[in-house]
Amino acid sequence: MAGKVPMRFVNFRTLLELTVGAKRGGIGGTSRFFWTRARWTAGALGSGRAAFLVGLPVLSGLSYQAFRKVQGSAVVCALDKEEVLEQADYLYSCAETEKLYQLLLQYQGSEDAEFLWRLARASRDLSILPGTDAGRKKQLTFEAFEYAKRALERDDKCFAAHKWYAICLSDTGEFQGIKVKIGNSYIIREHLERSVELNPKDATSLHILGYWCFAFAELPWYQRKVAAVIFSNPPTSTFEEALEFFLKAEEVDPNFYSKNLLMLGKTYMAMKDKEKALFWLTKAKEYPAHTLEDKEVHKEALELLNQL
Questions:
Q1: In terms of CB atoms within 10 Å, which end of the chain has fewer, N or C?
Q2: Coiled-coil intervals in this record (predicted)?
């Protein structure tokens, strides 16, 4: 389960708060990457322009797939580490955010990275739930980052620790200035790349890297100028680089996430390849709508197809 986010929302909610003025739409429902949870999913990803803050996605469709795999299982009383982790992953797949958080909170003093990165993820998911007040949201955001940081300190060979460190670091940028957000973007990418290096089959990390590249490739000239005022060498990327990550994510786990299909279509549109854009946008439109995010992807894909 470490490989699936779930961008719950990975619905990865967000990784890189790198966009200036990007809309922040929550991803409701039971999406994980609920990415309700992936801030950048419905917001930054869904907006016309990505800004300096790339809210990394929280991937909703992933939790549904995970649920299908464990459907019929029963939550058992945890007696040892493996049972606790199994129960935690079951609760995550079912989007039982509060129950998951309370379960893992009992192990907040653990020195085990497997507990800590899951607790970071649960704290983050809880922070982006609708109805969470501003004070609680900030507390949970920084709490999640500290858990992810500890997980990484305990095991820097754990790909999930690197992934959630990157996601949670991005989230803290919401409460800090633009300079910090842009500066963090370098670190975020570094940890995402390390996550992929440790687990090349993790489609969600590849997807987030693709979005990171897309966001900076799409950055308008005037926003680049603002970034250049703060940093002599601000983050840059290309649509070609973004495409490489999106395609790789699809290669390792075909149709794993409706948003990845949409981003492939949008990337080909940006590259003026109408034929391939039509292909991927059609796939995104026809993707089974199991979550609210899937429905939003369907709507955007349809709008883009009409434009084409």
A1: C
A2: none
